Please model this.
Amino acid sequence: MREKRKRPSRPAGQRTIPYSSLTDREKATYDRTTNLITDLRRGEGSYTELLRKYHLASRTARKYAGQDILGGTRSKPVRASKADRRVRDLKFPKSFGDVPIRTRSSRDATKLSEYYNDREKLLQGKLAVAKFQAKWGGVRIAGEEVVTDVRTIFEMAEADVLKMDSLYASVESER
Model:
């Protein structure tokens, strides 16, 4: 009787490439892959459409996404995993301006985005001060409390410290 042949196993090690070891260009590709996974979860389009949208090859997306992309083999459709522990460099609000922080939580990214949208509404006069403070008073994101002192926020806006192009911190940061 013949013995079954074993498939060569993958080498044991990390699931994905460590974020801290990536170059600036690779971090930009990693961020585009994160956006691809997010849109794939939301059903924003098919996998191939999203690859084109984010200027990624399937091989590159799989390299940076690791186990966050499932399927694609044996005629199974490509989908995103439900769990999300991807590293993100985000801008966090401090009393002296927005500083970059690193987080693995998609919940933190969502909460920060909501905070920045509300802060922008506050500065434009579309959100009442009392509502802003009631909603964000004592709220902690990534273990730190967000700035809710309206006087400080308006002073920072006058000093032109709150100019923000993107929630995600610049890939050229010195971290």
